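Re-run with default settings, no changes from the original entry. Doing this only to confirm the output is reproducible before filing.
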Amino acid sequence: MTTGSHTFGIAIPENWTEYDLHGDTLAERRAEMLRHAPQKETRDAINHTFRSARRIMEGARRRGAVYAAGTTAMYEDGLLMAGLMVFSVKPPPGEDFSAKGIAEQFSATGGRRRENTTRTLTTATLPGVGPVGRMAGIEETEIADGVSYKMVVTHTFVPVPGGERVLIITCFSPNIPLAEPLYDLFDAITSTFAFGDKEPVAVGAATT
């Protein structure tokens, strides 16, 4: 992938799919899952999940997303959805360029964050980059009046070398009960990120 004059790589699990940012891949995946879901309850869950995913994708394009990937799969205990997006952003003049400053304004869905959002700012070390800022927790945002999404999220903030931009690697999932294994998975994926043309180390298949 390329952002400005820099290229970067990130590895996703083998059972994840790279998405185009206009939603065509999501539409194909939705149709495939509906063909194998005869029960109305299951079909309703699939349609709701993909409507949410399309709204998130639309918001991501407006905010500078340059890459998107994810998985939507049906397991015995329900539907699992998880995704990753990489945003290229440049804070306006006079705005706080720190990880904390950007994180306070950033949400996974692009909507207005609600008061019961609980996120913690920490640091992480990416083998191909070094120390970076990370915001992780449960995030609830309102995209439209009366429509809100609650998600497990991690935002990892990677300064672009020699520039005024920062890449935000956002991982998210609405499967709140799986928060702890999802944090581990998101950390494993994000740890493969590196600038340049070097192939990132592969991530194992997502399991829950």
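Confidence is low (pLDDT under 50) at residues 200-208. Residues 40-62 form the longest helix (23 residues).
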